[in-house]
Amino acid sequence: MQYLDKLYKKHDIAWFTPVELFKPWYAYAIAASILRTANLSVPLKIYEIGGGSGTCAKCILDYMMLNAPPKVYNTMKYISVEISSSLAEKQLETVGEVRSHLSKFAVECRDATDRAGWGRKDPRPCWVLMLEVLDNLPHDLVYSPDQVSPWMEVWIEKINGSSQGSEVYKPLQDPLISRCVEITGMNEENVSVRDKLAFAAKGVLSKVLPKPRRAWLPTGCLKLLDTLHQALPSMSLIASDFSYLPDVSIPGDRAPLVSSKKDGKTLDHRNYLEAQGDADVFFPTDFWLLEKIDHDCSGFSKEQKNPGAFKPVKKRRTIILDSAAFMEEFGLPLKTRTKDGYNPLLDDFRNTKFYLSVPTHNKK
After folding, report:
1. Nearest Cα to 59, choosing from 34, 85, 87, 86?
2. Nearest CA to 58 among 88, 18, 27, 26?
3. What does the pLDDT look like over 191-243, one tens digit per residue?
């Protein structure tokens, strides 16, 4: 705790990611998982979405230089897709601390959700890393006045030209929101008899005790995965993020933690409309929903709904692991263990998980 306190005071930053706190061991575990499962007969290619200060990239390149067969390190490519030009410069500086890494590393300063930025579809195998990316992606809020009414989009409109905003509810019209609602089954019509009875009971209750519903939909995640599956159909994906967030006071399913930092103190907002300017917004990741979105974007879910003569084969194999389980499987937990046996790499960050998704290579 003293070490963390010094670190935060020295850098005056609101949040350090695990890859920074546990360098190089956190990134080494990710590199080990790639090396264990990659097809080494083709050159290794890794994309990182939102590479931060470049710590993950440098540590993975270090690991490959030290542990992979020389051919793997010498022919590999590591591409950071970074929207911030200042962070892109910082990444080149960090990776450049080891001169030989620079010939294998590149930064592409662009928005990863923009399909045009990826160029032509690349069918070759590659890896995509997203560490603490999903929690920062845009989400859309939907609302229903009771348990049975259809979901509506939430719009923010300014009050009398001031900077203050208020919510306005409109029928679903945004295609991303509508698709997200469909993937989650929030407006499911094909329900069982038992569910219909429960639905009818809810209808009675909603008239007697109407209870508004609110849900935050990961539309930014849907847009990004759609783009990645179109551009890199043979990608293997590793994502890590928060599975839940403590002390969230904003209402709604998958509601964010919205906080501001002033004079070294963090203030959590009870209403997202209050947060203007430089507030941090963190969304929890529903990993079950992430898997559904991943399968939908790969085309598997569409085949399930419209099966032909043959039963569709899964296009992705996915696994969700607690961060501690991932680190025990691929990492070196002894390196972060303290004298009394406490291990922050395993014992802290209990609210984070890893999502691994790889192509099955099955063909119909």
Report:
1. 34
2. 27
3. 445 555 555 555 555 555 678 999 999 999 999 999 999 999 999 999 999 99
- Count of residues in the chain: 364
Structure tokens at 32: 């080990």
Question: What count of other Cβ atoms lies within 10 Å of the Cβ of residue 297?
Answer: 24
Q: Point out which residues pair with 266 in neighbouring strands.
A: 261
Question: Can you read off the two tokens belonging to residue 95?
Answer: 């990776």
Is the whole model's pTM more than 0.85, yes or no?
A: yes
Reported as a single tens digit per residue, the pLDDT across 9-57 is 776 666 678 998 899 999 999 999 999 999 889 999 999 999 999 999 9
How many CB atoms lie under 10 A from the CB of residue 88? Answer: 19
Domains and CATH numbers, the chain: 11-138+218-245+283-363 (3.40.50.150), 140-212 (no CATH), 250-281 (no CATH)
Q: What are phi and psi of 36, to 5 degrees?
A: -70, -30
Q: Give the distance, in angstroms, between the CA of residue 115 and the centroid of all CA atoms in the same chain.
A: 18
In the chain the first and final C-alpha atoms are separated, in Å, by: 54
At 194 the three-state DSSP class reads: helix
Contact 82, 51 (CB under 8 A): yes
